[in-house]
Amino acid sequence: MLNHLNYSNALVDLSTPQVMGILNVTPDSFSDGGKYTQFDYALEQAERMITDGASIIDIGGESTRPGAEAVSEEDELARVIPVLKAIKQRFKIVVSIDTSKASVMSAAIDAGADMINDVRALQNEGCLAAVANSNIPLCLMHMQGLPSTMQNSPSYDNVINDIMVFFQQRIDVCINAGITRERLIVDPGFGFGKTLEQNLYLLANLSKFSQLGLPLLAGLSRKSMIGDLLNRKVEQRLAGSLSAAILAVQQGADIIRVHDVQATVDALKVLKAVTEHH
Ligand code: 7PM
């Protein structure tokens, strides 16, 4: 856990936990109703999340959904880069790009991205080189397997220890590639190759990752672990997601990645107020 993250043109103060709002720009996240384009919708969503108190907007153009078809480089660039540019032009907000492709990372950095969020922790060809010459923060997420098959039979000796070893290896690889430690953020990747039991154990022991001395990001919003635990469909998972967000922050998470920004900001305000008065 650190107190600050230094961004190119903005500073995110991590002395209190911050909310990262999810902005999906995948076709499956948008049903075309006519003249209203995905581009306009994305900008409106971004504005709402900023108003609601998000300090980071995470733009994703690749669906990591289990079984989702791969997105081509051209399609991902065409979805993400115009939205990134428009948000940077209109709002004063830190913008993160959720991608695993080196070409998208490079183009996003050129277009003013403030952060790269990679569910594959920069393991794809060319990713280390793509980010090494910039100075923006990088989120390294843990995933066991690949999105198409990762939920088949996830297996660990100990999920916390195994993820800790993975982080240590990726941190070393990054440092050897010329990326300073100060730029790194870690994320255990809830739901990415983990059973419900493993996800719950991970949340219960999340504070172990503070040993790394790096900012900790957690994404729990509307995930299957909430749905499976509560037997709720994706649109009925807000209460479960808020509870999980509170628990993650109590266990040391610095950044919470969510769909429902206003509700999460409210929940964290209650936690903060109570924590400051005990
Ligand atoms: C289907 C399955 C759709 C999973 C979307 C998802 C994380 C992330 C995602 C996370 C970081 C979701 C995921 N999850 N990046 N990207 N951490 N750093 O639920 O947990 O949003 S995609």
Outline the structure in words.
The protein has one domain: TIM Barrel, CATH 3.20.20. The two termini are 22 Å apart. The chain has an eight-stranded parallel β-sheet. The chain is an alpha/beta fold. It has nine helices and ten strands. The structure holds ligand 7PM. Ligand 7PM is lined by residues 22, 64-65, 98, 117, 119, 139, 141, 187, 189-190, 217, 219, 223, 257.
Descriptors for this entry?
single chain, 278 residues, alpha/beta, TIM Barrel, 8-stranded parallel β-sheet, two-stranded antiparallel ribbon, 9 helices, 10 strands, 39% helix, globular, binds ligand 7PM
Short description:
This protein is of the alpha/beta class.
